[in-house]
Amino acid sequence: MATHHDLVPTAAKVRVGVTDTLGLQRVLTVLSGRNHAFTRLEAEEANQGRWTITVHLTASAHQLELVTLRLDRLPSVLTVDVTTPGRLAATA
Q1: Gap between the Cα atoms of 57 and 38, Å rounded
Q2: Smallest Cα–Cα separation from 31: which of 5, 62, 78, 63?
Q3: How many whole angstroms separate alpha carbon 58 and alpha carbon 37?
Q4: Of 53 and 86, the one with more pLDDT
Q5: How far is Cα 12 from Cα 55, in angstroms, rounded to an integer?
Q6: Alpha-carbon span 57 to 73, nearest angstrom
Q7: 27-31 long-range contacts, Cβ below 8 Å, gap at least 24?
Q8: CB 88: neighbour CB atoms within 10 A?
Q9: Could you give the percent of the chain with pLDDT greater than 90?
Q10: Is 91 a residue whose pLDDT tops 60?
């Protein structure tokens, strides 16, 4: 069961590594139409046809967990990394 803390929106940075441009398209499809607001989106070719997508968004902890699970299920996704302000403070 979700706690109040899990439902409070927070800023997050999601970095996703994908194998190709089709993977890039799939990631954007998974991220669009959800109940979170994007503040920034970047996509850059990493090397050998691979792409890195960086998305800044506002979402609850529960929503971020769902996004991560959905992205991890995509066969073209190599890595998923979510950074939130709380996580940054804990590692500093």
Answers
A1: 4
A2: 63
A3: 5
A4: 53
A5: 8
A6: 20
A7: 27/53, 27/71, 27/74, 27/77, 28/53, 30/67, 30/70, 30/71, 30/74, 31/55, 31/57, 31/67
A8: 10
A9: 45
A10: no
44-76 burial, b at 16+ Cβ within 10 Å, e below that, comes to: eeeeeebbbbebebebbbebbeebeeebeebeb
CA distance 78 to 26: 13
**Distance separating alpha carbons of residues 63 and 22, to the nearest angstrom:** 24
- CA-to-CA distance for 42 and 92, rounded, in angstroms? 25
Q: Name the residue with higher pLDDT: 31 or 18.
A: 18
For the chain, percent of residues with pLDDT exceeding 70:
82
Alpha-carbon distance of 76 to 81, in angstroms, equals 15
Mean pLDDT across the stretch 45-72?
89
Q: Which range is least confidently modeled, 16-20, 36-40, 73-77?
A: 36-40
How many residues comprise the chain? 92
Which of 88, 85, 81 lies closest to 15, judged by CA?
81
